[in-house]
Amino acid sequence: xxxxxxxPRHEVTEMGxxxxxxCKPISGHNSLxxxxxxxxxxxxxxxxxxxxxxxDDSGMPEDRFSAKMPNASFSTLKIQPxxxxxxxxxxxxxxxxxxxxxxxxxxxxxxxxxxL
Amino acid sequence: xxxxxxxxxxxIVQEGKNLTINCTSSKTLYGLYWYKQKYGEGLIFLMMLxxxxxxxxxxxxxxxxxxxxxxxxxxxxxxxxxHAGIYLCGADGxxxxxxxxxxxxxxxxxP
Lengths: 116, 111
Prior knowledge:
The structure holds two protein chains of two kinds. By secondary structure, chain A is mainly beta. Helix content of chain A is 0%, strand content 53%. Chain A starts with a strand and ends with a strand. By secondary structure, chain B is an all-beta fold. The interface between A and B is medium-sized, with 26 and 23 residues.
């Protein structure tokens, strides 16, 4: 099994630019999660999907952030416009069930975003 | 919202010694997860506890959830260099839905 795949692994961009992060969950998994991690704030849940439907987006920091899951094998997290405070490692995770957090979550390697 | 407090924030332990990390919740836990991470890398799932009094072990790592389901401990026996990293607890609060993580405990294992 290839595991959760994220791209790009590293992204450096300038303030004001649009950033798109991509995630391919484990095949057959029904839930997908986006997280952000920084030294200051730790690990934060941004949004999660069950069967491609957004269930809880209360962790999305503001309107500049948006996430989509057009099908079971692909999701994107977009930041427009990006700001230096968005610099963080962004993780995508998937789980086999739809029970929210009662299933094991399998994390991808993360995308390290730097906004200059 | 529920808060998870981990202690200690960091610890240095000599190889071969035991260590314990605690995770305390302000509310009843419906599911408590332990993960290991190297900073900036993905999380490795260690184990999940759901029932009060439950205890699980994996190799030299044991985790317990207390009877009142508001505190969990992670215990490593005879620590090895491979145990170094950041350990995070995560919690599912049930009806309030939002999954949260503790701030993490950094473990350093010295020769």
